[in-house]
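Re: NAP structure - here you go.
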Amino acid sequence: MSKPKVLQIGALSERFNRELAECYEVTALWQRVDPLAFLQEQGTAFELLVSSARFGCSAEQLACLPNLRAICSFGVGYDPYPLELLRDRGIVISTTPDVLNDCVADLAMGLIIDTARQLAAADRFVRAGGWPAATFPLTRKVSGKKLGIVGLGRIGQAIARRAEGFAMPVRYHKRCQDLSSPYGFEADLLALARWADFLVLACPGGAATHHLIDADVLAALGPQGILVNISRGSVVDQPALVTALLNGHLGGAGLDVFEGEPTVPAELFALPNVVLLPHVGSGTHETRLRMEELVLANLQAFIDKGELLTPL
Ligand code: NAP
């Protein structure tokens, strides 16, 4: 029996690419010399597509795939997909929710602690031979401080649960109040930023949250406040953030994601109260394996039953 045809937009891990190729007839789009020209010629052949929160699938690519029925995406971000277009065409899409909550929430707590206690800066101080000559400056306490969370979804709730272990009062902002949540709702983002010692972003990227964190929100968070972003770079007005940090109008920032990543504003490199990570929120062996398994399970479920396991 012939294997089902699958179009794969970008490379995932070697293990995933190998397993996908064992079960399906995979066309690796990124290996084509001119991917768009290939799609224009051969796009009608594909009903199934595998991609990721990083590679997505553009409207231009979709236009070349008139028979596409399902997309199985690696990751939970869906900002690089034209969702309205998918809805209009009846194309279903799955992501990999829940399996990454722990790791992304762990990383958010790590960024809170690292930024406030300046672990990375203290490590650089020791490695540079600074300890015998000087005392590392005092930093900021974490336990008991007020935590504001923007987006109390799957990851936001996992962060809130961890914060309870640090005796942190938690309040949150999102579009609709969650009446079953034990945490205080704040409809006004500026009020949440004024209240919080730490403001953690755990909402989706995309047009609806573009620059939600602007100069006014950063000013409300203030010179003692710390911003942690594990959501998407687009949620923060990055030039405003850089200015606030350079002027000392913001206490610090722990950032896993950036506007225009992998480029990171070089002005931030010298600041000890800023922690910069290369978008590694879900990046552990255990979690990446579970995400890959979920992509494959979604694909097979759609082929077998016409339904995705974790549709968006
Ligand atoms: P989720 O369960 O869908 O939660 C998203 C939360 O954001 C919900 O509480 C939602 O509530 C809120 N939200 C949506 N639009 C909003 C808006 N305009 N303003 C304020 N809040 C808004 O998603 P999740 O699984 O927790 O993932 C959240 C995001 O984390 C993902 O979309 C992704 O961008 C990011 N992420 C990053 C990494 C990383 O490696 N750094 C890894 C995984 C995920 P309402 O709908 O009520 O507003």
